[in-house]
Amino acid sequence: QFISFIAANALLFASLILVIGVPVLYMTQSNPTDNRNREIRIIEIIGGVWFHLVLINGAIASLAA
């Protein structure tokens, strides 16, 4: 249960970062015409971390139940 608690809190924290960080990063792009600028790559990395946290949280929840 402790591991499930940690995974759930990590998922909530990553979701908060996505909700606040993505619009800020998108609005503060240095070059909006470039699809591969630094801000877009950071958004993709944060999204990838969030997706993997969802998978890990689902696996832990299925094992703990």
Structural class: mainly alpha
From the structure provided, what is the oligomeric state, counting identical versus distinct chains?
Answer: single chain
Low-confidence sequence ranges: none
Q: Kindly report how far apart the N and C termini lie.
A: 10 Å
Average pLDDT number: 86
E-strand count: 0
What is the helix fraction of residues, given as a range? over 70%
**How do the helices and strands follow one another from N- to C-terminus?**
HH
Radius of gyration: 15 Å
State the helix count. 2
Percent strand: under 5%
Overview of this structure, please?
There is one protein chain. The protein is an all-alpha fold. The protein is 82% helix and 0% strand. The protein has helices at residues 2-27, 38-64. The longest helix has 27 residues, at 38-64. It is elongated and about 45 Å long. The mean pLDDT is 86.
Q: What layout of secondary structure does this protein have?
A:
Elements: H1 2-27, H2 38-64
What structural keywords apply?
mainly alpha; 2 helices; 65 residues
What's the quick description here?
The protein has 65 residues and is mainly α. It has 2 helices and no strands.
